[in-house]
Amino acid sequence: MTTTSAREEATVSVTGTRTAPVRPARPRRPDRRRAASSLPYLLVAPAVLALGLALGYPLVRQVLLSFQEFGLAQQFGQPPEWVGLANYEQLFTDAYLWRVTLRTIVFCLVNAAATMVLGVGLALVMRAMSTPVRLLAQTGLLLAWAMPVVASLTVWQWLFDTQYGVINYLLTALGGDFEGHGWLLRPLSFYFVATVVVVWMSVPFVAFTVYAALMQVPDELVEAAEIDGAGRAQRLRHVIVPSIRPVLMVVGLLQVIWDLRVFAQIYILQKAGGSATDTNLLGTYIYRLGIGGGDFGTSAAVAIFMLALTVVLTAPYVWSMIRQERTEA
Questions:
Q1: Per the database entry, which stretches of residues form a coiled coil (predicted)?
Q2: How does pLDDT run across 290-313, given as a tens digit for each residue?
């Protein structure tokens, strides 16, 4: 009996019916789905690693510095002294820190709100403009946004100059008593000038971003609401704003972060005549403690406190975005 006939006989069942021969099981191939799902993480890993090294080391160094006494002596080679929470205890018992914190929060919220209102308003106006007028407006906004901070502040200082400022001249010509008025000498008027500068430099970003989002809103949706009898305010509230809400949330979050850590505008205006003690925000306060006073340990503690404050102020925005993503999913 041959080998072939033996195999055929082995496949015959007891009832006499022929069954298919049993084949050996093939080895399983690796799961392609699992490999495909892990591929994005592998591609992002190098960038995340580089970002973690670039941002993680300075943050860890800042945290360690906040627990040390690091002054001018340490810059010349003397080892720093570990003081634990002494820097934080000194700060939290200092009434001046809380005054600066309150100023910073109020300044941040006022500037962020004004920037969002003006930016969204300009975006809505640009949506209704004709093409030539819109291009002209966008060019002006782009130039204002691209202008360097120092150059723009030089112009604003000249506009609000005490003796030769255009603002004082125009207000005096209109009948006001503003001849020789020092805008930077008083804290309230100082913050008014700073708010004008910060908002003027931030509005173009909001306007461009929101305008791009408005262009993605379907015209049919707006026209359907208009046919149903919705007015302009109702269309804006119930159709347009819900459609661009994710963009508004992200832009608002960025504005809060940027306005909370504003530094250059305040510092340059202080150099132009403002009182540093009465107009310090957290950014300039950290600079004057560290670079100006040589107390880098306390300066690092204020920086960590500012980081925690940023997390607290931005947490509602982040939570709202996460909740909206979960609702849409």
A1: none
A2: 888 888 888 999 999 999 999 888
Structure token pair of residue 32: 């392609």
Overall pTM surpassing 0.90 (yes/no):
no
Name 175's Cβ contacts closer than 8 Å, sequence gap at least 6. none
Q: If we measure between CA atoms, which residue out of 198, 164, 167, 183 comes closest to residue 270?
A: 183
Q: CA 308 to CA 52: how far, in whole Å?
A: 19
Token representation of residue 62: 């800042």
Per-residue confidence (pLDDT) for residue 7, from 0 to 100 = 47
Residue the block writes with tokens 């173009």: 204
Q: What are the boundaries of each domain within the chain?
A: 83-328
User: Structure tokens of 186?
Assistant: 């008083």
**Looking at domain 83-328, what is its CATH homologous superfamily?**
MetI-like (1.10.3720.10)
pLDDT at 11: 46
Count of other CB atoms within 10 angstroms of residue 294: 15
Burial category of 119 from C-beta neighbours within 10 Å (exposed 0-12, middle 13-18, buried 19 and up): buried
C-beta contacts of 117-121 below 8 A and 24+ residues apart: 118/199, 118/203, 118/206, 118/207, 119/202, 119/203, 119/204, 119/205, 119/206, 119/207, 119/209, 119/210, 119/251, 120/206, 120/207, 120/210, 120/248
Residue 48 has pLDDT above 50, yes or no: yes
